[in-house]
Amino acid sequence: MNPQPAVLSPGKARLTLATLFLGMFVLGSAELLVVGVLDLIATDLRVSIPAAGTLVTAYAAGLAIGGPILTALTIKLNRRSVLLGALLLFALANLPLVLISDYGLFLAARVVAGALQGVFIGAAFAAGIAVVPPERIGRAMSVVISGVAVSAALGSPLGTLVGQAIGWRGSFAAIVGLTALVLVATLILVPPVSSPGSGAAGQAKHAFAPRVLAVLGLTLLIYAALYAALTYLVPFLHGVTGVSGALISVFLLAYGVATAAGSFSGGRFADANAARTLIVGTTGVAVSLLALYLLGSVAALAALGLLALGLFVGVMTPSLQYRVMSLAGPGGALAQSLPASAVNVGIAFGSAAGGMAISGSTASSAVLTGLIIAVIVIPVAWATSLLKPPSVPAAAPAPEPQTASLP
């Protein structure tokens, strides 16, 4: 069964995408919020900084593992119903963080919240691409996924400011309130989108086909290269570039804004040629990391390198999602939650690799590690560009909506 949303005017289609963008922004901000108030949480819960840092790992594990599992369990449900249920439970999962002081319960709540964000991501993509014609699928994806990019650029810093001003629990209270707002907007503005015809078992053979796993592997490597460098960017800026204090925040904000701008514009490239976009994007990431490694001692050039890095990563993101769904064919509904899992595994792998490199070495060794991985990624991107979707009627990345009035 193909999704059949209500006939929407162009304005209503944009409102649907805006609602999904807002949902991704709020949930993305919740994911990153702990980083900015880590010391405050550690003091309040009476645990060490590394123990508090485990709250970030727990959320990522919940998203990477729990997201696909929940997507499989809810595969036959209406996508709007999944969105509403995920938002309601996400608000409830974050509410204890405002009230409790038990570290174990806090950890469990973060795992659950991560899994709920994972299922929300898959359902949001399904709902977003159902309200646009096939030639605009990439642009719809870029709007939805940009919510996460903007949350990294703005949501996390704003949450950190709130946490510093009124306490970290106030930040999570704001997340609960904003999630409730998104829930209401979803109920009003997102049309029903029916589930695919087959269940999880029928979709799994397509969603986990070798061609799909290859692009998921590419996604993992891209983010491993990125986070091998980014995780230890502050020591690099301090030790190599000579930047400290508030200027470090300016550099990080520049990277975040560039990523958000790239993800917004990346949808057009995905619609034009997603496979080619990934080849160009991976090459751009490698060149940006090379520039950062060689020229990072000059502040202005380091800033340009970070801007280019963020832009290339942002532009590639919709194409990664597009290729996975396209290559999955009839398994697209299940596959659409998998790139987020690959991203989180890549982040964990890259952070570990960068940590090993920088341990007992110079501050630039993490950037060099990211560069080495990025160089390896380029031929992988070229190889995956040769992969073709399955030759079946449902092989399109998303079903065509039953409306002729959309833009």
From TrEMBL:
The chain crosses the membrane at residues 20-41, 47-70, 82-101, 107-131, 143-166, 172-191, 212-234, 246-265, 277-295, 341-360, 366-387. Its main location: membrane. CDD domains: MFS_NepI_like. PANTHER family: CHLORAMPHENICOL EFFLUX PUMP RV0191, PURINE EFFLUX PUMP PBUE. It is a multi-pass membrane protein. Residues 16-392 form the Major facilitator superfamily (MFS) profile domain. The keyword Transferase does not apply. It is found in: Cell membrane. Gene3D superfamilies: MFS general substrate transporter like domains. InterPro entries: MFS, MFS_dom, MFS_Efflux_Transporters, MFS_trans_sf. Keywords: Cell membrane, Membrane, Transmembrane, Transmembrane helix. It holds the Pfam family MFS_1. This is MFS transporter.
